């Protein structure tokens, strides 16, 4: 059962991500990315990490993607090519083809390197007493307390920065 | 129908594929919003690696790092989108090639 779900969710994640790239309309890209995130969340459940699965849905699919959707709707840009008028020299077909080749090389390299490892079976999920939310919380607030507090400052700075950057210029 | 049992390597390879897809998006697309979305795909591929390694080594540190990655991704998305809005006000375009001059 787990096996079937793994391959199903993996297929969803990969197809969703490919769709993100090849959609011309950013709106569809965002929605397909949410599909991909939900599939990844299912994979986290399979891996015995329900806390990460929950925050994947709540933070990524819920908060960050809604932010993206807001901006896509606010800017109201439809087709990418309609905006591409007056292309300068940098973005021509040559560099894009070069980029495509480079990313294919990266894909081949990663798959080759990772498949050369010994097939390591995963430890059974039941033995993972570590993964409960309580354990994560204890570890987060004891060992990682400083990083946690630094994160809150980071979020505050990002919030102020976003407001300042996106504000309309006063004449 | 008998599918092969997923091992640690299957998760790593899936993560590698997702990362390569994200890289291809950053290289190929000519839309700032889609480029940011591709960066999110790459971040998620890395998160998958962390969680899979967590399961493999029976720890929770990877899940905590995933938590921090998500927080940083949220901050990055907020600032990036604010910059995109500011740029769009000036040029009415989302093509990165129209933002080649430092001053206008």
CATH superfamily of the domain at 1-79 in chain A: NADH-ubiquinone/plastoquinone oxidoreductase chain 6, subunit NuoJ
Number of strands of chain A: 0
**What structural category characterises the helix and strand content of chain B?**
mainly alpha
CATH fold-level name of chain B? Helix Hairpins
- How many β strands of chain B by DSSP? 0
Mean pLDDT of chain B: 87
Shape of chain B: elongated
Give the fraction of residues assigned to helices of chain A.
Answer: over 70%
Largest interface (CB < 8 Å): A-B, 89 and 76 residues
Q: Could you state the oligomeric state of the chains shown?
A: heterodimer
Could you state the order of secondary-structure elements of chain B as H and E?
Answer: HHH
Low-confidence stretches of chain B: none
CA distance, first residue to last residue of chain B: 62 Å
Shape verdict of chain A: globular
| Helical percentage of chain B | over 70%
CATH topology type of the domain at 1-79 in chain A:
Four Helix Bundle (Hemerythrin (Met), subunit A)
Q: For this structure, what is the CATH class of the domain at 1-79 in chain A?
A: Mainly Alpha
Q: How many independent structural domains of chain B?
A: 1
DSSP strand (E) fraction of chain B? under 5%
Question: Which parts of chain A are unreliable, with pLDDT below 50 for 5 consecutive residues or more?
Answer: 82-90
Please summarize the sheet with the most strands of chain A. Answer: none
Provide an overview of this structure.
The complex is a heterodimer of chains A (171) and B (104). With 171 residues, chain A is an all-alpha fold. Among the domains of chain A are: 79 residues, Up-down Bundle (Four Helix Bundle (Hemerythrin (Met), subunit A)); 40 residues. Chain A is built from 6 helices and no strands. The radius of gyration of chain A is 21 Å and the shape is globular. The termini of chain A are far apart. In chain B, helix 2 runs antiparallel to helix 3. Chain B has one domain: Helix Hairpins. Helices cover 75% and strands 0% of the residues of chain B. Chain B is built from 3 helices and no strands. Chain B is an all-alpha fold and 104 residues long. The interface between A and B is large, with 89 and 76 residues.
């Amino acid at each position: 059962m787990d096996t079937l779900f793994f391959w199903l969710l993996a297929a969803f994640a990969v197809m969703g991500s490919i769709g993100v790239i090849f959609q011309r309309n950013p709106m569809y890209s965002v929605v397909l990315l949410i599909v991909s995130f939900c599939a990844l969340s299912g994979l986290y459940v399979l891996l015995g990490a329900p806390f990460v699965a929950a925050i994947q849905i709540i933070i990524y699919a819920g908060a960050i993607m809604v932010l993206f959707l807001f901006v896509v709707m606010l800017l109201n840009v439809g087709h990418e090519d309609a905006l591409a008028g007056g292309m300068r020299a940098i973005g021509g077909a040559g560099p894009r083809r070069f980029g495509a080749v480079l990313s294919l090389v990266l894909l081949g390299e990663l798959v080759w390197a990772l498949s050369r490892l010994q097939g390591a079976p995963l430890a059974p999920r039941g033995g993972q007493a570590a993964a409960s939310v309580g354990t994560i919380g204890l570890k987060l607030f004891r060992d990682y307390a400083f990083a946690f507090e630094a994160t809150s400052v980071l979020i505050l700075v990002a919030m102020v920065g976003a407001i300042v950057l996106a504000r309309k210029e006063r004449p | 129908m008998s599918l092969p049992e997923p091992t640690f390597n299957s998760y790593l390879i899936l993560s590698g594929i997702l990362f390569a897809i994200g890289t291809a998006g950053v290289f190929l697309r000519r839309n700032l919003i889609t480029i940011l979305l591709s960066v999110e795909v790459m971040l998620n591929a890395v998160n998958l690696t962390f969680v899979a390694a967590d399961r493999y080594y029976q720890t929770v540190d990877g899940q905590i790092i995933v938590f921090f990655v998500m927080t940083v991704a949220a901050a990055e998305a907020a600032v990036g989108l604010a910059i995109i809005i500011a740029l769009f006000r000036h040029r009415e375009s989302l093509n990165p090639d129209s933002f080649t001059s430092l001053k206008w």
